[in-house]
Amino acid sequence: MDSLMAALVAALLIRASDPSTDMVATAAERSGRPGSVLSGILIALIVTQAAAAAGGYFIGPHLAPNAQRLFLAFALLAAASSAFWPGKAKPIDAGRFTATGVATRLILGGWTGRSEFVTLAVAVGGTAALAGIGGLIGSFVVLATAAVAGESLWATRPRRAIDWTIGSVLAVAGAWLALSALRLI
Q1: What's the distance, CA 82 to chain centroid?
Q2: How far is the CA of 134 from the CAs of 4, 61, 112, 125, 140, in angstroms?
Q3: What tens digit of pLDDT does each residue of 11-39 get?
Q4: Distances (CA, A) of 31 to 37, 83, 174
Q5: What whole-number distance in Å separates Cα of residue 148 and Cα of residue 130?
């Protein structure tokens, strides 16, 4: 259960500062088909979070407990740095294949995604299946909120304040875990 909650909370925080939410909000509003966008989101998250959980399942037994904790600390610190300096998502073409386009963009971005990396790190030190489920739920909640809100409403949120707050929380958690894994605290 710890793996589920850790991955869920991490995914909620990380996705809230992720540029993929802007892409999803834009695709949902410009296409006028938020249901299709939601199905694309779900397909992409099942693929990417399952791959991250499976990777954690296979890597976990080969690492000592302190190394597992240090791996999670590194993942959180990497997510924090990306929250401080977020990238820009290219807008998606609101053509006929909205679900396919969104799923493809999220899957391709998922291989280098912060949320998937933290899910992998949580799965390394915990129960892989629960980490994957937690990452999926947390990511889906944020991305679905962006899709339902649409581009015009989603763009009005205080993005920099959210990014800096989330980045600070992730940096503190990552630093604490790193110091703990190195037995400095």
Answers
A1: 11
A2: 4, 21, 18, 14, 10
A3: 999 999 888 888 898 888 888 888 899 99
A4: 9, 28, 39
A5: 27
